[in-house]
Design a protein that fits this description.
- The complex is a heterodimer of chains A (284) and B (470).
- In chain A, 37% of the residues lie in helices and 24% in strands.
- Chain A is α/β, with parallel strands linked by helices and 284 residues long.
- Chain A folds into 2 domains: 4-123 and 200-266, 3-Layer(aba) Sandwich (Rossmann fold); 130-198, no CATH class.
- Chain A has a 6-stranded mixed beta sheet, sandwiched between helices. Chain A has a 4-stranded antiparallel beta sheet with strand order 2-1-4-5.
- In chain A, strand 9 and strand 10 (258-264) form a beta hairpin.
- In chain A, helix 7 (183-195) packs parallel to helix 8 (213-230).
- Chain A is globular, with a radius of gyration of 18 Å.
- The two termini of chain A are 34 Å apart.
- With 470 residues, chain B is of the alpha+beta class.
- Chain B has 2 domains: 3-54 and 326-467, no CATH class; 111-288, no CATH class.
- Chain B has helices spanning 3-16, 18-56, 75-80, 92-99, 139-142, 161-167, 181-185, 262-267, 273-277, 279-282, 302-311, 320-362, 364-372, 377-420, 433-460, 463-468; strands spanning 61-66, 104-109, 112-119, 122-131, 145-146, 156-160, 192-202, 211-216, 227-243, 258-261, 291-296, 314-318.
- A 6-stranded mixed barrel of chain B has the order 3-4-10-6-9-7.
- In chain B, strand 3 (112-119) and strand 4 (122-131) form a beta hairpin.
- The two termini of chain B are 28 Å apart.
- The chains are: A alpha/beta (284), B alpha+beta (470).
- Chain A binds chain B through residues 88, 91, 93-94, 113-114, 117-118, 120-122, 124, 126, 128, 130, 132-137, 145-146, 148-151, 154, 193-194, 197, and chain B through 1-2, 4-5, 9, 12-13, 16, 365-366, 368-379, 462-464, 467, 470.
- The complex binds adenosine-5'-triphosphate and magnesium ion (MG).
- The site of magnesium ion (MG) has 3 residues of chain A, from helix 3.
- Magnesium ion is lined by residues 83-84, 205 of chain A.
């Protein structure tokens, strides 16, 4: 099975480059025709119920939302409101009880388990609150792992992993194990791993939840850079409204599994960031 | 995921919980070692038995008789084959034809007669038989006191132990069956025996005056000349050997007590029982044999050769059935030993299941992570299979080495014991190459089978649940 051929995003997405050296080439080919009409993510009456004995827990209960390609969206809500559940459904880690999630015109509910795995491998990059690096592997091996599943050639893997770690400033630590690193460093490695197969979607579940605010800012700046320079769609779960307002273009509020608010970030980074403006300007 | 990646990840995972995986692998090794040990013993014993039996000459021999004998070994054949009167005669052309059949080493006539032998002027009556030169390598004659015939025509004789006792006038005491053959042979070797026998001589008008009588075919004018004389002769023989043979367990020709070289015996034209039946042929110079012994280069070929000879219209007899049941016995023995050996491997395979199920519990989160970053069910399954397979192959290799070592130790120990009992050392432990390969392969397959359930379980693991665990 052609792993890259099936996913046009890989052809059009530019190679991830060091955010320190923005290239004009990054912006030009990022968007292609269907993206204009179809959103990157389209959830329709999305439900995920859990049966606990007699009780039915409605973790996600009829959520409908659209996220455009290249958008940076924050999912907000109190604990237990269903943020992670929604994110897992978009990530193809879980299947909806009813409703549909369509990501780049693919209805995840209709994909086989095998197809879902391929979707996670090539289209989605995930970052978690608890970093979720594999403890027995070095950073380089952790970053290389998705390429093993994607059957990338060994020689290519080494240089790509090295590059990715250099991009998040960890080239000196690549042969260390996660336990030897700080939380911020671990989350940077996790970011490098999430981006190694050039996904179109970056899904982050409270990526700064375990970090102090300074380290959190560092991580968030990186996420914003990927969003702006690579045109990557970002959905970030957080319960910190301030953080969401600083980085996201749009804020979506959940409560008890229902969508209770969806607003553009008025105080948002679109105005604050000059980068953002230039990126928007080139987008039709 | 590609195979080298799988192997690498599997080995690294195995190293992560080194102690547990080593113990599991040792379990497999012990299982494989026990299997190898059991089967090696079975194979070794079988080889030992067939080596022994091959040497005894029991299992590579077919005895051919003519149907004209009317003493068929098998009654059914008598009814289905050609009538005895139409059957082939066992003469020299027939012998040569048999000898040219594929896989036949030699075919020689059985010459045997009862006659009188004089030793130091005392007569002794016994059965005399001819031995082919090839009998020299026969187990029974390997331990002969003195030596084997110096040539196929030499006027020499080898005596059976009991006949040597008779010549010396000794009677073995009933309790003590251990007669020293060397002691018996010493006074006899080099001494002379005089054999008196009845020679069949083709009748001529100038028939020998010493003729004991003559046989003619009456009532048939055309065969009027077909007659031969029976003449009394003497032959001096030098005793060259005394052999300790068990006359009951040996094949046909060794049931005699005095042996002559085959060519010499043939040249004597001793009157044979068949000469009376085949009177018209006996009156020529061509001998007619009562039976022919056929030696085969491989006991497995006996049936084919027997069939070929039967097609020639002759009767055959072999101890094929005995080898068949022997093979059956060893097949059953090997099966039992294999089952007992596999039992340990079965227990070891439960160890694999246990270890891998433990690994799933321990690596729940890791499996969840791998799935979240794009591993398919198949990838996870293959990874666990690879771990099970790696333990299997490693355990198999160590186990074969262990089994081989156990075999060597037992071999050594038994040979020390045999030596103490002043018995010759024996090699009854054999690890053939196919067993090495088969044992490792078997360990690998058993391990994969053991990995089936854990791998399936790991593959089905729900990543969301796995990642919820902190
Ligand atoms: N496997 C499950 N079985 C039963 N209930 C579940 C399961 N997974 C999630 N839930 C329930 O679904 C609801 C939503 O959970 P979810 O993890 O999506 O919340 P969240 O918004 O991410 O909360 P937090 O901010 O604490 O991470 C919760 O009430 C949770 O208890
Ligand atoms: Mg959550």
């Amino acid at each position: 099975m052609g792993s890259t051929g099936r996913y046009p995003q890989n052809d059009s997405a530019p190679a991830i480059q060091s955010p320190a050296v923005p290239s004009p080439a990054i912006h030009a080919p990022a968007i292609h025709a269907p993206a204009i009409h179809a959103p990157a993510i389209h959830a329709e009456q999305l439900c995920r119920h859990y049966r606990m004995g007699e009780n039915l827990i409605r973790a996600v209960d009829g959520v409908t939302l659209k996220v455009g390609a290249g958008e940076f969206v924050a999912l907000l809500g109190s604990s237990g409101s269903g943020k992670s559940s929604v994110l897992n459904l978009i990530a193809g880690l879980d299947r909806p009880t009813s409703g549909s999630v369509i990501v780049h015109e693919r209805n995840l509910a209709q994909l086989s388990r095998e197809e879902l795995a391929r979707y996670r491998l090539h289209t989605v990059g995930m970052v978690f609150q608890s970093f979720n690096l594999i403890a027995s592997m070095t950073l380089a091996e952790n970053v290389e792992l998705p390429m093993r599943f994607a059957e990338v050639d060994r020689g290519k893997r080494d240089s790509l992993a090295r590059e990715a770690l250099a991009r998040v400033g960890l080239q000196a630590r690549m042969n260390h194990r996660p336990s030897e690193l700080s939380g911020g460093e671990q989350q940077r490695a996790a970011l490098a791993r999430a981006l190694i197969n050039r996904p179109r979607l970056l899904l982050a579940d409270e990526p700064t939840g375990n970090l102090d605010s300074r380290t959190g800012t560092e991580i968030m700046n990186m996420v914003r850079e990927f969003n702006q320079q690579l045109g990557m769609t970002v959905v970030m779960v957080t319960h910190e409204r301030a953080l969401a307002e600083r980085y996201a273009q749009r804020l979506i509020f959940l409560a008890d599994g229902r969508l209770v608010g969806d607003e553009a970030n008025s105080a948002g980074p679109a105005n604050a960031s000059p980068d953002r403006a230039s990126a928007d300007g080139e987008r039709p | 995921m590609r195979l080298p990646d799988l192997a690498e990840l599997a080995v690294r995972n195995l190293r992560e919980s080194l102690l547990r995986n080593s113990l599991t692998t040792i379990g497999i090794s012990v299982g494989v070692a026990s299997l190898v040990a059991m089967l090696s013993l079975g194979i070794g014993l079988q080889q030992l038995a067939s080596r022994r039996l091959m040497k005894s000459g029991l299992f590579d021999t077919v005895v051919v008789t003519s149907r004209r004998d009317l003493r068929s070994f098998n009654r059914e054949e008598e009814r289905t084959g050609p009538a005895p009167g139409e059957s082939r005669i066992l003469d020299e052309p027939t012998r040569r034809e048999i000898e040219h059949l594929p896989n036949v080493l030699e075919a020689y006539p059985d010459i045997r007669f009862i006659t009188e032998l004089r030793y130091e002027d005392k007569p002794h009556i016994t059965t005399v038989a001819a031995l082919p030169a090839s009998a020299k390598s026969n187990d029974a004659f390997e331990a002969v006191q003195g030596h084997f015939f110096s040539s196929d025509m030499a006027p020499e004789a080898i005596l059976q132990k009991t006949f040597a006792e008779e010549l010396l006038g000794r009677t073995p005491k009933p309790g003590l069956d251990e007669t020293n053959v060397a002691e018996l042979a010493a006074p006899l070797l080099g001494k002379e025996l005089t054999m008196r026998y009845a020679q069949r001589e083709v009748s001529q008008s100038t028939a020998a005056t010493t003729a004991l009588g003559s046989v003619a075919v009456p009532g048939n004018e055309s065969l009027g000349g077909a007659a031969y004389s029976v003449v009394s002769r003497e032959q001096k023989l030098t005793i060259v050997g005394v052999a300790d043979l068990d006359p009951e367990s040996m094949r046909g020709p060794t049931r005699a007590r005095v042996f002559l070289p085959l060519k010499l015996a043939e040249s004597l034209h001793v009157m044979q029982p068949t000469d009376l039946r085949e009177v018209s042929r006996a009156a020529t110079d061509q001998p007619v044999y009562s039976s022919i012994t056929v030696r085969v280069n491989n006991p497995a070929q006996i049936r084919a050769i027997e069939d070929a000879i039967k097609k020639m219209g002759l009767n055959t007899f072999s101890i094929l059935d005995a080898t068949r049941s022997l093979q059956q016995f060893f097949a059953v023995l090997d099966l039992f030993l294999g089952i007992f050996g596999s039992l340990a491997l079965a227990v070891a395979s439960i160890g694999i299941v246990n270890t891998l199920v433990m690994a799933i519990l321990e690596r729940r989160r890791e499996i969840g992570i791998m799935k979240a970053i794009g591993a398919s069910d198949g990838d996870v399954k293959k990874l666990f299979f690879a771990e099970a397979g790696a333990m299997g192959i490693l355990g198999g290799i160590v186990g074969v080495a262990l089994g081989w070592a156990i075999g060597q130790v037992i071999n050594l120990g038994t040979n020390v014991y045999l030596k103490r009992q002043s018995l010759p050392p024996e090699h009854f432990w054999s690890v053939p190459w196919w067993l090495v390969g088969a044992a490792i392969l078997f360990a690998f397959i058993v391990s994969l089978a053991a990995g089936l359930y854990p791998a399936g379980r790991a593959a089905r693991l729900d990543p969301v649940q796995a990642l919820r665990y902190e």
